[in-house]
Amino acid sequence: MKNFESVADVAQLSALIQKGIDLKADPLKAESLGKGKTMVLLFFNPSLRTRLSTQKAGINLGMSVINMNAGQGWQLEFEDGKVMNMDKAEHIREAAAVVSQYADIIGIRTFPSLTDRDKDYSDFILHQFMRYASVPIVSLESAIRHPLQSLADLITIEEHKKTARPKVVLSWAPHPRALPQAVSNSFLEWVNRTDAELVITHPEGYELAPQFTQGIRITHDQREAFEGADFIYTKNWSSFNQYGKILSQDEAWMITSEKMALTNQGKFMHCLPVRRNVVVADSVLNSEASLVIEQANNRTYAAQAVLHEILNTQ
Ligand code: CP
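That is the input. Now the predicted structure with phosphoric acid mono(formamide)ester docked in place:
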């Protein structure tokens, strides 16, 4: 594996999931693999889980890890051919080349603009780093995907599934702010590579990008979707078609214990952070059905599995 951007970079998905599970059982089993290597993590927006779990993953593999908040007070120009006489002090060509000299692997965390759909869906910032860096790039969430989250989610499903083909439901839920589609897009494309039965439920107007939903059943009836489900994966996202807009904050879409009772003793999943009693009721988050803390734990082993693959090919 050279770069890690999406499930398309993974040759053997079941093997990568198993690698994460094996590393969880013995996190220091490859503690010398990254000895003498440095990973630089650049964050263009805040993070708790991604930042700490990826750092821990690198440490477990014997790497040195440097974290940097890249968006504040250090404005980068990503476009080519610009006259840089405004606020942006450095071009991605120099920045990516320079950081590549300090790092054996670079992790990048970006967010979409939620105003320019074409640019966001070209994953412009991540791809400009890939273009101008000379070392592997790991996406720590891009404008349109969150692959390390998705791998952690698949590890969690693998650990908790009771059948070979579990029913997995991606449900929209309300939120007061306009959020990216990245977690949901990514979750769909990763789960679609497994044998799971996948269903999406959301209010009308919240259709995700067709490239991520092709062939997946979509229903606007949340209760019908929940019937017999083994996993309820909940996430808010802003509209794709009316790009970045909030079209509904309908609290009837919040995840409640009464809706979870429709499932096949289903588990509740969310990538966190989550707004209690807006996205999901306390009674669900506080119940044994909730896997959110386990998902966050698995972020370390998802990152460790990916870094292990990259280090093995360096
Ligand atoms: N799930 C997730 O990516 O969390 P952070 O935003 O805290 O990294």
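Residues 292-312 form the longest helix (21 residues).
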